[in-house]
Amino acid sequence: MRNEIAAIERLLKSDKLKVKRNKTWDSICVETGAGAVVGKEIHFASADKQRLRAYIASACGVDPQFDSRSGGRMAMASHDASEKLTSDSVFGHLVVIATAGKSEIKVNGDTIKTPAGSVLSVLPENLDREHLKTQKLVIVENGAIMPYWHEIQLPGNWKDSVIIYRGHRENMRTVAEIARIQPDEQLGWFFDFDPAGLALGFDQGKGVLMIPEAWSSFDSKTGFNQPHKYHDQKNALNRIKKQATGELHAIVAHMEKHSLAVMQEHLVQRRVALIERKIMDGFLI
Questions:
Q1: Which of 9, 60, 138, 157 falls between 20 and 30 A from 49, CA-CA?
Q2: CA 195 to chain centre
Q3: Which residues does 218 contact at the CB level (< 8 Å), separation at least 6?
Q4: Of the ranges 14-23, 149-158, 188-197, 258-267, which one carries the lowest mean pLDDT score?
């Protein structure tokens, strides 16, 4: 895995969209479904690069796009005279969190709830993760929807959920750690409704995936569909098609027929009702 992480890290930190084929990259492509082999090279679309980043983050809790020296400038200052050498953003290590319904979190022993339209940014070490295990937890892909968490139409038994942004910098690692210890029945994921989102949800290996209840009513004429994004995700589509059975197969077939790529922002803005589906052995249960 170390070679794979290093290779993916080099790609993501560069502007390159192709690499020379070798055993490491062939293995990565087979495992993730990302990239297209073109002669002695492997070419990547932007969606492929995001897929690679998510794969490593899911597998080992490391965001390969950023330097491993995490914790921010305050942490760096305790052991490095040049605290500015850290790659962390000022707030990149904080966990962004909100509480829906009757859910609550504990920070430094204090019980906290967030009013509608607000979020809380918490130092990872100050968040009570044991208490979090007693709460329903929904991890969302896009940070832009966090201030609008109260508009997410969660299923009935998930109305009282703690909602956490999956992160995009150092906090991505922390959230991956939180997800790993969260009880299976207390964990939900909410991603874009597109091939990459389905593939990402499928890869989590635990919890439930939130999808639109009326997914079969979406088609190529749906005004907020973004087919150009769908067409950038052929590798993710092909990978999930190989694994899909049951309802998941029906969803993937419908998505392919209508070139569907519906972003979280539109689902939230339009208050589209969500349902929960557990992914297990290729089935949505």
A1: 138
A2: 13
A3: 193, 212, 225, 254, 258, 260, 262
A4: 14-23
More confident residue, 77 or 24: 24
Pairing of strands 161-165, 120-122: unpaired
Please name every residue paired with 139 in a beta bridge, in sequence order, or none if there are none: 164, 189
Beta-bridge mates of residue 43: 18, 36
Q: Which domains does the chain have, with CATH numbers?
A: 2-60 (no CATH), 95-284 (3.40.1360)
The pair of three-digit structure tokens given for residue 132, joined into one six-digit string: 């979090």
- Amino acid (1-letter code) at residue 100: A
For the stretch 171-227, pLDDT in tens is: 888 999 999 999 999 999 999 999 999 988 888 889 999 999 999 999 999 999 999
pLDDT band at 90 (very low <50, low <70, confident <90, very high): low
Cβ atoms of 189 and 138 closer than 8 Å: yes
Structure-token match 């639109």, residue found: 212
3-class secondary structure, 80? coil
Q: Please check whether residue 61 is in contact with residue 176, taking contact to mean a CB–CB distance below 8 angstroms.
A: yes
Phi-psi group of 271: left, alpha or beta (phi > 0 → left; psi -120 to 50 → alpha; rest → beta): left
Among candidates 151, 179, 157, 158, which has minimal Cα distance to 57? 179
Concatenate the DSSP letters of all residues of 164-189 into one string: EE--SSTHHHHHHHHHHHS-GGGEEE
